[in-house]
Design goal:
There is one protein chain. It contains 14 helices and 51 strands. It has 918 residues and is of the alpha/beta class. It has 5 domains: 11-96, Alpha-Beta Plaits; 133-342 and 503-578, Peptidase S8/S53 domain (Rossmann fold, 3-Layer(aba) Sandwich), CATH 3.40.50; 349-494, Glucose Oxidase, domain 1, CATH 3.50.30; 614-737, Subtilisin-like superfamily (Immunoglobulin-like, Sandwich); 751-909, no CATH class. The strands form 13 sheets. The chain has an 8-stranded mixed sheet with strand order 8-7-9-6-10-11-12-21, with helices on both faces. Helix 5 (210-220) runs parallel beside helix 11 (549-566) and helix 6 (257-269) packs parallel to helix 7. The longest helix is centred in the middle third of the chain and has 18 residues, at 549-566. It is globular, with a radius of gyration of 32 Å. It starts with 10 loop residues before the first strand and ends in a 9-residue tail after the last strand. Keywords: Hydrolase, Protease, Serine protease, Signal. The active site is at residues 163, 211, 550. InterPro entries: C5a/SBT2-like_Fn3, Peptidase_S8/S53_dom, Peptidase_S8/S53_dom_sf, Peptidase_S8/S53_subtilisin, Peptidase_S8_Asp-AS, Peptidase_S8_His-AS, Peptidase_S8_subtilisin-rel. Residues 635-735 form the C5a peptidase/Subtilisin-like protease SBT2-like Fn3-like domain.
């Protein structure tokens, strides 16, 4: 099974987006969009069903139309067809749900109170950094800190965020809303509980809707430097102006495609330069005609960058096949999709002392303050259900120890911090501690905590302890005795330790590339793992640590804003290219000798400082390597522009990145790693070029596939980087593609061993199933079956019943062509032709997209064929063969040379008994 999303997404029942004609007509008295909406309503009133309008789209040049919900169809089938018949209707499309999806975002329905909020929040706790406390590591990873030092902070750029709303009361977000504030505008389409209600205030104070506050902070929060405000952490573009468009409620529901589209269109009307969306679904429905596809494309053409999270469908296992997992809408060609890289440092780690004098480090948003010491109560399995938590709470409550005990449970590969969310079905506990045990994977060594307020009703304080300190806790607890063991919390200063996986791709960040066309998704990556940012105000609030491509998207949006502020005349495509080519490729987390696949990281870690300060430009930002023609593969080019004041020499080189297969051998027991050191190479006409100041040059070259190790039948993907260096500047242009010519690959699965042969046609004769390798004599009662496999995708697959003396020379024979026998012609004249040769009809004739497959089909009795009018018949006695033809990728259905063919042995059809085989 290939690792891509194929099942349909969830439909919003009886709800449709109707696109109307959008044409400006000179001399019109009324705006064209108003005229079209009026005409639609007039015609729709005559339809045999009623509807309500959810959204109207009055944006000439981008999108004109409306979304409607049918109240009832009165049993009418396919009401969208009736809507399509209305004059002026361009398309009618169903509406789908698009959720937020981050691994650290709470599963809100299971939380006691996702609506928890504070009208009068308590004061923010006071904390101070230790010598190694560093909250700027994510900014440093992307060169943003250097730009801030230069005064480049995104001034003059407007960023629209489509999310859950924002708690703009936050001191780091300006404490207000409207013109003159950081959050200057926006809109909301619903209330906290999901009721549809449009208004101009996107304020969200509930913890369940904290996602929008978090991504807003990543984009542009201000550092808090004074008094009680102790977190000196900045957003990427703190001088940019933010517009928030609320499309999700406190339970993160409500994100339908028509509502998201309304938010995007309103953002464009508000004049934003960037739309940042941290949402998506692993399932796909896009066909290029969906209105969301059109809107995104037209926004990009209008100069608005739409930046979206790649999705969190990645796996913790390095053995799982992971290709083709890009979410929707990140998969859309005009969208900039962003992968997630782990923060080099975990921002907030505090220390406690135990009864034996050991220092125990723990991760938490805010420190526990309990200098008298907490007892530790250990639950052996925190994910076995609520009963163990309830039993522990009851015991501690009866002993009068509930408020002076921290309940601990082991974190394992199968029991993450989410297990603690079963803690509080009966009563909240004050403190919970996750102890990491038996961690063998580098991702498991890192600290990990759930989002603020996600445990219990939001007041429970959760901390995590990594493996080394967990071992100390368990060992000392065993020596001292559980009744006497204590942890003393009297330190409110934090460290920011380096993470083992810091600077590498996060495990959950979904792999691309785009299914079937191999274009890179994600196009670029940014810090997204363990990102500290703003959160709704309240207990266990103010800030939160979240991980996900949802965090990487606003980070990249901020970087885009910084570049846009310095180069306001560049197009969306030009800024993306600038960001991609100056990014830094990362190594694979499991093997530092391997550069992570471009299908995982895109161009790598964004570096906004290089994008702005480099004195050259290299474009495009990514390359697709595949067939150029039927005989040419891998011919590409880049353009190098020297924007400096002097002549520069540029040196070209190649860096291979890992290779991967969507379906490794031994499936489903994956014993092959999903990233392998199998590299292509580059062939340059010259390894260097000289370019005068202010001029550019196109550099053509070839990317060659790996010379060994590839297996085209496994549909692998490879990639790498074209490196361009000059005077201390280094550019990297990523590429991806199939490591073989799709057109010239083998399409028919051919096997010839002592135990099996493929393709094959078998007839069930008296002594059992017999594979026809020369000639079989059969009659109308004899069963046949076939095994004809395909190793590649195709859009043309047919099996023709043809005269046995057909003159076509196939690519593969199902018999020995040197053997001769006496041909018996049929009395029936072939009624159709295939590739200008006679044919009696087809057994299979498909022009749909077919995936590689091997199975027993077609099957039946005797000798039969189907005519174009669907008539099935037998042409009568005579000698026949099957001609199998599979269309090569990019080929022409009408050209024999664009197909791979196989010709079967002779099937001699007779009346009466059949007994001969040759």
């Amino acid at each position: 099974m290939l690792g891509f999303a194929s099942k349909p997404p969830k439909l919003v029942d009886l709800t449709f987006i109707v696109e109307l004609e959008d044409a400006v007509v000179e001399g019109d008295i009324h705006p064209r969009d108003l005229d079209e909406l009026t005409k639609f309503r007039k015609h729709a009133s005559k339809l045999p069903f009623e509807y309500t309008v959810a959204h109207e789209y009055r944006y000439p040049g981008i999108f004109v139309g409306l979304s409607i919900e049918l109240r009832t169809t009165h049993g009418l089938r396919s009401p969208e067809l009736r809507l399509s018949d209305i004059p002026g209707v361009v398309s009618v499309s169903p509406v789908y749900e698009l959720p937020l999806s981050d691994p650290d975002l709470p599963e809100l329905p299971s939380i006691d109170n996702p609506f928890r909020s504070y009208a009068n929040p308590p004061a923010m706790p006071k904390i101070v950094p230790k010598a190694d406390g560093d909250l700027s590591s994510a900014l440093e990873m992307a060169g943003v800190d250097k730009l801030h030092q230069l005064g480049v902070k995104g001034k003059g750029i407007k960023i629209g965020i489509v999310d859950t709303g924002v708690d703009y009361r936050h001191p780091a977000l300006g404490r207000g809303f409207g013109p003159g504030f950081k959050v200057a505008g926006g809109w909301s389409w619903l209330t906290d509980n999901g009721t549809a209600f449009e208004h101009d205030n996107p304020l969200t104070t509930c913890y369940g809707g904290g996602h929008g506050t978090h991504v807003t902070g990543i984009v542009g929060m201000d550092p808090l430097l004074d008094g009680d405000m102790t977190l000196n952490v900045s957003g990427v573009a703190p001088e940019a102006t933010v517009y928030m468009y609320r499309v999700f409620d406190c339970s993160t529901n409500g994100g339908s495609t028509d509502r998201i589209m309304a938010a995007m269109l309103r953002a464009q009307a508000d004049g934003v330069d960037i739309i940042s969306m941290s949402l998506g679904i692993q399932e796909s429905w896009q066909d290029g005609k969906d209105p969301l596809t059109k809107v995104v494309s037209r926004l990009a053409d209008a100069g608005v960058a739409v930046i979206v999270s790649q999705g969190n469908a990645g796996s913790r296992s390095k053995y799982d096949p992971q290709l083709y997992r890009t979410s929707t809408p990140a998969e859309l060609p005009s969208i900039i999709s962003v992968g997630s890289i782990a923060n080099k440092k975990f921002p907030l780690v505090y220390t406690a002392a135990d009864s034996r004098g050991a220092t125990i480090s723990y991760a938490s948003l805010w420190p526990i303050e309990f200098p008298d010491g907490l007892e530790v109560y250990l639950i052996d399995d925190g994910c076995s259900g609520t009963s163990k938590w309830d039993d522990a709470v009851t015991l501690l409550e009866n002993q009068g120890k509930l408020n002076t005990t921290i309940i601990a449970f082991p974190i394992t590969n199968n029991c993450r911090d989410s297990g603690a969310r079963g803690c509080c079905s009966r009563q909240n506990v004050p403190y919970i501690m996750g102890l990491y045990t038996n961690m063998s994977d580098p991702y498991d060594i890192a600290y990990e905590i759930p989002s603020s307020g996600s445990v219990g009703d939001g007041s429970v304080q959760y901390i995590s302890v990594i493996f080394s300190d967990s071992t100390t806790v368990l060992t000392n607890m065993n020596v001292t005795g559980a009744e006497k063991y204590r942890l003393y919390f009297n330190d409110t200063s934090y460290s920011s330790p380096y993470q083992v996986v810091g600077g590498k791709m996060d495990y959950y960040s979904a792999f691309g590339p785009l299914y079937l066309n191999y274009n890179l998704k994600p196009q670029i990556s940014a810090p997204g793992g363990e990102i500290l940012s703003t959160w709704p105000l309240g207990e266990q609030g103010y800030y939160s640590l979240l991980s996900g491509t949802s965090m990487a998207a606003p980070f990249l949006s901020g970087c885009y804003a910084l570049v846009k502020s310095q180069f306001p005349d560049l197009s969306v495509k030009e800024i993306l290219s600038l960001l991609q080519s100056t990014s830094e490729p990362t190594k694979w987390v499991y093997n530092d000798t391997i550069t992570a696949g471009t299908f995982q990281q895109g161009s790598g870690m964004v570096n906004a400082y290089k994008a702005i300060t480099y004195q050259s430009r290299v474009s495009p930002g990514q390359l697709l390597v595949t067939d150029n023609t039927r005989t040419t593969y891998g011919a590409v080019n880049i353009t190098i522009m020297n924007t400096s004041n002097s002549t520069k020499r540029y040196f070209l080189s190649h860096e291979g990145a890992s290779y991967s297969e969507p379906n490794p051998p031994n499936n489903p027991i994956f014993s092959q790693e999903n990233q392998l050191p199998i590299y292509g190479s580059a062939e340059f006409e010259s390894p260097n070029v000289e370019i005068p100041a202010g001029e550019s040059i196109v550099v053509p070259f070839k990317i060659l596939p790996p010379i060994s190790g590839i297996k085209p039948e496994r549909l692998p993907v490879f990639g790498g980087f074209i490196k361009v260096t000059s005077e201390g500047e280094e550019f990297s242009v990523p590429y991806s593609g199939p490591p073989y010519s799709l057109y010239n690959a083998r399409y028919i699965h051919v096997l010839n061993t002592s135990t099996s042969v493929q393709p094959q046609i078998s007839y069930k004769l008296q002594d059992g199933w017999t594979i026809n390798k020369g000639m079989l004599e059969v009659n109308s009662s004899i069963l046949y079956r076939s095994l004809i496999g395909r190793d590649q995708f195709t859009r043309g697959y047919r099996i023709d019943l043809v005269p046995a003396n057909i003159s076509i020379i196939p690519d593969f024979y199902g018999y020995d062509p040197a053997e001769e026998y006496e041909y018996r012609p049929s009395n029936t004249t072939p009624p159709i032709s295939v590739f200008e040769s006679p044919s009696y009809g087809t057994l299979v004739n498909s022009t749909d997209l077919l995936s590689p497959s091997t199975f027993n089909w077609p099957q039946g009795t005797g000798v039969k064929a189907t005519l174009p009018n669907a008539t099935e018949y037998s042409p009568g006695p005579g000698d026949y063969r099957w001609l199998v033809s599979v269309l090569r990728w990019g080929g022409d259905l009408d050209k024999l040379e664009d197909h791979e063919t196989w010709l079967s042995a002779v099937i001699r059809f007779v009346d009466g008994p059949a007994s001969k085989s040759l």
